[in-house]
Amino acid sequence: MYAETVLKEWMEAQVPRAPQMKDGPAFFRNLEQSLDVHRATHSLLLAKPRWDDSIVDLTTSDALSLNRDGIVRDALLKELQAHGDFILSASGSRVQYGNYEYLIQTEKEIAEFHGAETAYIAHSGFMANASAVAAIGTPGDVFVYDELVHTSSHDGMKLSQVAEQIKFKHNDVESLRDVLTNLRDTNPKLKAGTKNIIILVESIYSMDGDVCPLKECVAVAKEIFPLGNAQFVIDEAHSTGLIGPQGRGLVNMLGLEKEIAVRIHMCSKALASTGGVILCNKHIRNALIQNARFFVYSGSPSFAMVASMRVGYQQLMSGATMERQEQVQKVVKHFYKTMQEHPVYEEAVEEGIISIPPMEDWESRKWHTHIVPIRTRNHYEKYLFYHVLLIAKMNAYAWSFPIVPKGQSRLRIVFHNHNTFKQVEDLVNAICDWAQEMLDIESGTSDNTLPEATRQVYALQGVTS
Ligand SMILES: Cc1ncc(COP(=O)(O)O)c(C=O)c1O
Questions:
Q1: From the CB of 61, is ligand 1 less than 6 Å away?
Q2: How far is the CA of 126 from the centre of ligand 1 (A)?
Q3: Is 125 in the pocket of ligand 1 (CB under 6 A)?
Q4: CATH number of the 2-14+44-64+323-460 domain
Q5: Within the chain, which residue ranges are assigned CATH 3.90.1150.10?
Q6: Which of 213, 214, 265, 409 could join 400 in a cystine, given CB atoms 3.0 to 4.6 angstroms apart?
Q7: pTM for this predicted structure
Q8: For residue range 108-133, what is the model confidence (pLDDT) as tens digits?
Q9: CATH 1.20.120.450 fits 71-317, yes or no
């Protein structure tokens, strides 16, 4: 019933509201009118109800299953008991009373684990990213960012004192080279090393699941700016726990600890709790304490929150998650192999019904990320979402513009340690059954103009095809 309930709620939420509020207060009518713009394209976001195990999880960030298995929760309860007299609230910001010993100790442990000089704990990954990006730029510096960096990096740039922001093409080292070369040749202060370039990237991009060519990017930055005034901020949200030795992330995996000025790890995803960690040297930490308004003017994270981050990290430190990390790799490989062997796959790709970019060279890659996009035509992403949810009882969300670039609508699959091979096979069958339906509709060999699951959803709303 979950699928029907959530889809009905979702369809109802897309019905325009402002026209029914003619006699109500203008303030709220105006607000709903602004939301009706999203409803018009069926893209109003919905705070969805949680699903139970009758629906297969292809969505959550719990890739290592540490949340669903209660591992971090159990460790947290023990940790809280072991510190029975803890003081719950920080009762102040870092620059007041909020810089307590347990927090300092946790930061030291995490910094050591990652081979970083210092670590700084923030309330969320979003806040860690936005704050770090905002705090380290000074007037006259320039941001250079991958066009697909997370919105938290964009918000950080907006909050900073840096006026100039230049994007480079996603994961394109030559595009980065062009941007940096042009800056060096047109801005004497950058060339002389009296102003800085801050380069923003992610280790694994959240919508495409592809990996930053970090080594190559670092080499280009060093070549063009040999004085050391071009430095990187990397968001490791989706690599934490999943990539590198004991899940330390991409920078550790590549041995680039000394080359990257700021690394941001999230505990809200595979580590099954919440919060962000900024890994940096003492100079950057000083700038955070001085400039990061979220930290100066906001109470420090509570003991309970820091404890949950610490015990999450201890799972990595102890090696307890390594088998789970390996299992995720097996699950993703099984998906690629099963999809490749499915009789419908090739035709579906040739006809443009689906494309799965990471499948292009999957057999030659040493490791895989757990995020896999199934790209499809504009609007088809919703049809595929309905099919996977209603018919296969699996939950993976559909994304379209503006969350992903125009023309790159997709179903975003997140694979987990807890996804079985059978579930992976069911998923492949569901995608390919739907692709076959679309092939039949497009070639005119079907009596329908819409696929079955979409007709069911429209019927829920009283719309007929
Ligand atoms: C790439 C990326 N960075 C940052 C964040 C924010 O992290 P948090 O959920 O810990 O605030 C997210 C979460 O969606 C993310 O995907």
A1: no
A2: 5
A3: yes
A4: 3.90.1150.10
A5: 2-14+44-64+323-460
A6: 409
A7: 0.95
A8: 999 999 999 999 999 999 999 999 99
A9: no
